[in-house]
Amino acid sequence: MASCWTVADLFCGAGGLSQGFQRAGFELVCGIDNDPPAVETYRANLGDHAVCREIAEYTELPEAAVIAGGPPCQGFSSAGLRRPGDSRNTLVSCFAQVVVRHRPLAFVFENVEGFLTAEGGSRVLELLTPLVGAGYRIHLRKVNAANYGVPQHRKRVIAVGGLGWEPPFPDPTHTAYGAPGAALGGTCLPRTPSVEEALAGLPPAATAGPGVPQGHFYRPLAGVDLARARRLLPGQTMRDLPNELWHDSFTRRANRRVMDGTPSAQRGGAPFGVRRLKPDEPCKAITGGAVAEFLHPSEDRNLTLRECARIQTFPDDFACTGPASQQAQQIGNAVPPLLAEVVARALLEGLAQARPREGHGALLSFVPTLSSGKSPALAEVTRLVRERFHGVVRAKERLLWD
Predict the structure, then answer these.
(1) Which residues form the catalytic set?
(2) Within its chain, how far is the Cα of 124 from the centroid?
């Protein structure tokens, strides 16, 4: 067996997934992405083994025990417009094809929760069908990163597969709180760190870049933006403000939500627009727009890039490159390194004991939600997956389908 397990990171972005694997003890042998600024950040922090290339065009993938990756999710992310047929969605198939072609001992796949119901569940089948057919034994589950110590509620889909062996899926390490259903992921565990705890120890933020640590600066608010901030209490959003303080785009979206005559109270009201974070709870999910959408828990300003990186569990010496807008996207798009590390550590322990055997692949578990109920869309996806893989699901795991 290998003395140092290796990993290749497809769609590596700025390197959150790679950093987590590196922390767990894996050797990084390759990172691939077609976003030049993100690759530049990766190389500056993790090494010159990253290349800027389209995955489908890259045929020189070095041998690796593990292939990991999170294909770009914007095509089916709830943070933006969902676009059926988005070309980025087909990268799910590309990931599966690379794994089948290179046949690593294991793979790790990560994506947004919208992946589960995208295009009627076809993307789930697009991932699982070729991998199960190639002999991989797979867990696919939706998780909340807060249950693994990440100080934010970030729901993601993770698949872990072993070629001819059954890899472990990491158990939750923390009890989450501060969001509906958060405690379903685990109880009697250490509490997930809060925003206040995540930001502890940072010096006062500068009002101009680059800041110390890098990215710890903000643009002072003025005019109506400052007026909004001064009115918002922790946990409040723009819909808690008087209408005259709503910005135009928020007003348009609010009106669009009720243009069919349905009362806003029955539709959840308008989208948030801007939110002041609660200091004593985990953060909402960090996205590329977090520096504009989230207000500091106690100061009348937006979060800094460094504060977003802290909440994403990047260390302070991890420096992003490029303009601030690109840095914000790199941070928001990344897999939190701590989540990646927990997954990688469990996989490392499994690899040390793995005894691969030739045989059929299997879907070991499929957990699309921890809730007792499912949306109609999620219920249909569950039906499709059960129908497709019922014959190759391990008997003692079948209870996880219900």
Answers:
(1) 73
(2) 16
